[in-house]
Specification:
5 domains; 27 helices; five-stranded mixed β-sheet; Rossmann fold; alpha/beta; Ubiquitin-like (UB roll)
């Protein structure tokens, strides 16, 4: 430890700390403008200069390391003069447009001028500032307001890992420029800008900062669930912000910063609708509830079904499953988790007794090695990408990226493993074999916790690395190199995503990754962990609430439901149909009534065209949602719900963190919170009292058995019980060998960075960057079928066909076609089978 004195106060700090850090510990404030704690210091503004006894010139506190015994002075007449003059120089040619500058009232430059009594501009120079940059999507750059603090550049590179921003030109002509091809449009440059240089176009001229009401809540655009402040005024959300005290350290992505606009969309449903003689018309809530109750009760329990959503809160999903099981006597309930996340849930629970991530997301940032497998983590959970940046840029972690297509993280990976479609399990088993064969596994851990270790060792001995190389298309040497990085690290973070959980080989690949987690050491220690990701905001909570026929809340098997039956005072209905069986039941006429809560099978479900045909013949359809769509037009009853900004409740992040949604504004028009809708229906259907949310939370906690004592007690976030396996509780899962994949075209549907689910397609911000769907292919394939960028391409699979504009890109290898699922115009899900997101496809010029 280093001892020093600052303004007469003795302070002791670790070696390597800066004077600024020491001053903070001593409670001494040193003025700054360019300093930002989460990035490396720049020393550009010079406001933090201090005097050090025995040193001739003042030194910048932000990047000067402490030395033992030094005496530092932070306030003197000379320092005050230097700081005033520095600020005056910053104001040369700075426009006096504070009345129309969006930073007015929260401008750090204004604050330092006030603090240092800078009231004039004694210096003058020729104004050579670059012109305002207005052609960037979503963000305007005003160079003559810029003080070149470089906060935006450093956040973009060090925190986000994009490196899109850079300093263009030199001297007094220098300005911040952008490589638009690298930009993620996260808005973090706007958030850290100390002046009005970086401006959010979606917020510009909407309000003055002091007029805004700030409501702390969480973003549910993805499963990372960043903590946010909802900035609202006059019944509308005007911007989303965050600060450095949050779990996300103040960082946001496009989903958090710019996607809120759907809540203000003209497509919002504002009143209940009832179909009368084939035409929908607004009705009272009482009439809508009455019609819903009648429709749900007019058929036998086996003929009614419901689909819920990760867009609902934990309490709402709990009420949904209870409404069906208790008041309707039906276990025909499911969700889109059926097509991905539920596979992960079941496979990891069977092998590792794990119902989600094994550790907190911030443990990724301190891991020594990271494997990202079958996941475009930048798109699926940007906050996880930031943790990877923390580990690799600020730490010295080794990064291995395994994916079928190119992703952003390839740029900084120590090893990139571009495996062939369908060969993921083979690759995972090969990596596991190398680690075990080289003696890099923690044998004591395996002996203690793995119940069938002999089977693990025997099976891995049979893995042929040369055959694995042939199947995956990856050189054996590269597989061995990557395995060396993982096996040689004391802590490993293993992250996988939708390309694994939604693939046709999902269970096998997830099991292989669970085996790899066992052998690589990802499951023990405080750093790293196993992290299955799903892009949808409350997917973990949806699964935890048991919204599927085979599970009850807390992940309890439905067959062992006696405690729930006793608590609910019912006999649980027998059987139950999952999403695929519900679809088949509608087609056969066995399912006659369907309730859809915050979900749209016509766009987001695989086989979406088949769902459309089925819903055309359903006898009674209830749709509870927030936006008018093709689906709501088909409904017999439409119940307008609320956005996450308009409701209270809890949601569960990918790392088992229970977060609290706080209501920032009332739902639009006559719309109601989804929990209130479900509670009213429950009361009417059961003939009992209307459940209160506090009662529902207590019931969840008591029956599920997965929450610790602090959960639901306060408004603060909490974590479910941490992963702590018992001896001999972990199981190796045998994985069958895979054959060499087909040489036919393979179509992959998935998520892109600029959209989150389907609701963001009704938000102006994301649509400015990605307005419509497309079909992406390699230049080799484009030449092969005779198309160029923008041409219409037709794709045909065994379940349907669609067409869309071609996008020619090097991001996909030859033979692989990619299309995002978010957009109703291309609606790629109509050609995707129910059991996979990867399908053999015929591609022709349209």
């Amino acid at each position: 430890m280093i001892k020093l004195t600052i303004d007469g106060k003795a302070v002791e700090v670790a070696a390597g700390a800066t004077i600024l850090e020491a001053a903070e510990k001593a409670g001494v404030r040193i003025p700054t403008l360019c300093f930002l704690k989460k990035v490396s210091p720049t020393g550009a503004c010079r406001l933090c200069v201090v005097e050090i006894d025995g040193v001739e010139k003042p030194m910048t506190a932000c990047n000067t390391p402490v030395a033992d015994g030094i005496v530092v002075t932070t306030q003197s007449e000379q320092l005050a003069k230097i700081r005033r003059q520095t600020i005056e120089l910053l104001l040369v040619n700075h426009p006096l447009d504070c009345p129309v500058c969006d930073a007015g009232g929260e401008c750090e430059l204004q604050n330092v001028c006030y603090d240092h009594n800078v009231v004039s501009q004694p210096f003058a120079a020729e104004d050579v500032s670059a012109a305002t940059i207005d052609h960037w999507p979503l963000i305007q750059q005003v160079p003559n307001r810029c003080v070149l603090c470089e906060k935006c550049v450093k956040v973009c590179y060090e925190t986000v890992g994009s490196g899109a921003l850079f300093i263009n030109d030199k001297g007094d002509k220098a300005f911040i420029d952008k490589d638009l091809d690298k930009c993620e449009f996260c808005g973090n440059c706007v958030a850290v800008c100390p002046t009005g240089t970086m401006i959010s176009k979606t917020f510009k001229f909407k309000a003055r900062p002091w007029e805004l009401k700030k409501t702390p809540s969480v973003c549910t655009a993805c499963s990372a669930q960043c903590q946010i402040d909802i900035n609202s005024s006059k019944g509308q959300i005007l911007r989303i912000t965050s600060d450095d005290t949050t779990v996300n350290n103040g960082n946001l992505c496009l989903g958090g910063f710019f996607s809120y606009g759907y809540s203000n969309s003209p497509q919002r449903l504002t009143a209940p609708l009832l179909k009368v003689q084939g035409r929908q018309q607004p009705v009272s809530w009482d009439a809508a509830f009455a019609a819903t109750v009648t429709g749900l009760k007019q058929v036998a329990p086996a003929a009614v079904a419901g689909l819920a959503s990760p867009r609902l809160t934990n309490e709402e999903n709990y009420l949904f499953q209870k409404l069906f099981r208790v008041t309707l006597g039906s276990n025909n309930i499911d969700s889109e988790a059926r097509f991905g996340a539920l596979r992960t849930y079941r496979t990891l629970r069977a092998a590792l007794n794990l119902q989600g991530a094994s550790n907190r997301l911030d443990r990724i940032g301190v891991a020594q090695a990271i494997l990202v497998f079958g996941c475009d983590v930048t798109a699926e959970a940007p906050a996880v990408d930031w943790q990877i940046q923390q580990a690799t840029r600020k730490g010295d972690a080794k990064l291995v990226v395994a994916n079928m297509r190119a992703v952003k993280l390839d740029r900084q990976a120590n090893a990139t493993l571009p495996y062939r479609p369908g060969s993921g399990a083979t690759l995972a088993m090969a990596l596991t074999k190398v680690i075990l064969d080289r003696g890099l596994a923690d044998q004591d851990y395996l002996n203690r916790f793995v119940v069938n270790l002999d089977e693990l060792q025997a099976d891995l001995a049979q893995v042929d690395l040369d055959q694995a190389a042939a199947v995956t298309g990856i050189a054996r040497e590269l597989i061995e190199e990557a395995a060396g990085y993982l096996g040689g690290a004391d802590s490993v973070a293993l992250i996988f995503g939708a390309d694994v959980s939604k693939g046709s080989e999902a269970e096998a690949t997830i099991a292989a990754l669970a085996n790899l987690a066992l052998v690589s050491g990802a499951l023990h220690g405080d750093c790293g962990g196993l992290f299955p990701l799903d892009e949808k905001g409350n997917m973990q909570g949806l699964l935890d609430m048991g919204v599927c026929p085979e599970l009850l809340p807390g992940g309890h098997d439905y067959a062992a439901g006696a405690p729930f039956a006793k608590a609910w005072n019912v006999t649980l209905p027998a059987g139950g149909c999952n999403a695929g069986e519900i679809l088949a039941g509608i087609e056969s006429g066995e399912i006659r009534t369907l309730y859809l809560a915050a979900t749209n099978p016509l766009v987001s479900f695989p086989e979406s065209a088949r769902w459309r045909k089925a819903l055309e013949k359903i006898e009674f359809l209830v749709v509870q949602d927030i936006l008018a769509t093709e689906l709501t037009l088909m409904a017999d009853v439409v119940l307008p719900g609320a956005t996450p900004f308009e409701k209270s409740g809890t949601v569960t992040a990918a790392d088992q963190r229970i977060n609290v949604l706080r209501k920032a504004l009332d739902p639009v028009g006559e719309a109601r919170e989804d929990g209130a809708i479900l509670a009213e229906l429950y009361a009417r259907l059961s003939g009992g009292v209307r459940p209160e949310m506090s009662t529902v939370q207590l019931e969840i906690k008591q029956l599920s058995g997965i929450y610790n004592d602090t959960c639901f007690v306060t408004d603060a976030a909490c974590w479910k019980a941490s992963f702590s396996p018992a001896d001999k509780s972990l199981r190796y899962t045998p994985v069958a060998s895979q054959t060499v994949p087909t040489d036919d075209f393979q179509l992959l549907s998935g998520k892109i960075l600029f959209h989150f689910g389907t609701t963001s397609t009704c938000a102006p911000g994301p649509n400015e960057v990605a307005p419509s769907g497309y079909i992406e292919m390699n230049a080799v394939d484009a030449d092969r079928i005779g198309v160029k960028a923008g041409d219409t391409v037709k794709v045909v699979t065994t379940v349907g066909e669609t067409a869309g504009p071609a996008r020619v890109s090097s991001k996909v290898p030859a033979g692989l076609i990619f299309s995002p699922y978010h957009f109703a115009d291309v609606n790629i899900q109509q050609v995707i089978p129910a059991d996979t997101n990867l399908v053999t496809v015929q591609v022709t010029k349209g």
